[in-house]
Specification:
mainly alpha, 8 helices
Length: about 200
Amino acid sequence: MEHALSLFVRSIFADNMIFAFFLGMCSFLAVSKDVKTSAGLGLAVLFVETITLPINYLLQVYVLEPLNLGYLSFILFIAVIAAIVQVVEMVVEKFSPALYSSLGIFLPLIAVNCAIMGASLFMQQRVQLDPENVKAIATIGDAFAYAIGSGLGWFIAIVCLAGIREKMEYNDVPKPLQGIGITFITVGLMAMAFMCFSGLNI
């Protein structure tokens, strides 16, 4: 329980997918222009991550490792992520056409969001197996905690950046820095702020 809680908190703050590993930057920078759209994408990423990471963990522990098929992990992980993203895309299109339209190409591109794939691969590294009884040291509870934490960390990052970018529209930003320039500076400052959590230990 303590290990799962530690994974959860660290994956939100100290090991944030955006500010610690800079994964998923394409959609992070492109969609974070307003809070509403960013929150929609962030929730979609959180949902996909929460579902796919434990499934990929179970595939790794109970299918790939016992059968010595670890080299297929990339293919299977991507297939699981793509399948869940298709479901999310259909649900969003049916129940929230406005959000579906505002997200555009970035909703289906969640399937290749490296933050989601990176979380599955990071969890794969934590799965240390006993070669005699093929029992995972990391548990399914750890996988769920890490999935929710890393997805929540990505959600917090994109919503915070969107809020800052909305405020900056009313500020007098120097012309050479307008647009993506000031956005990069803002992300860098946010990453430095999140580095304060690097010593966090539960």
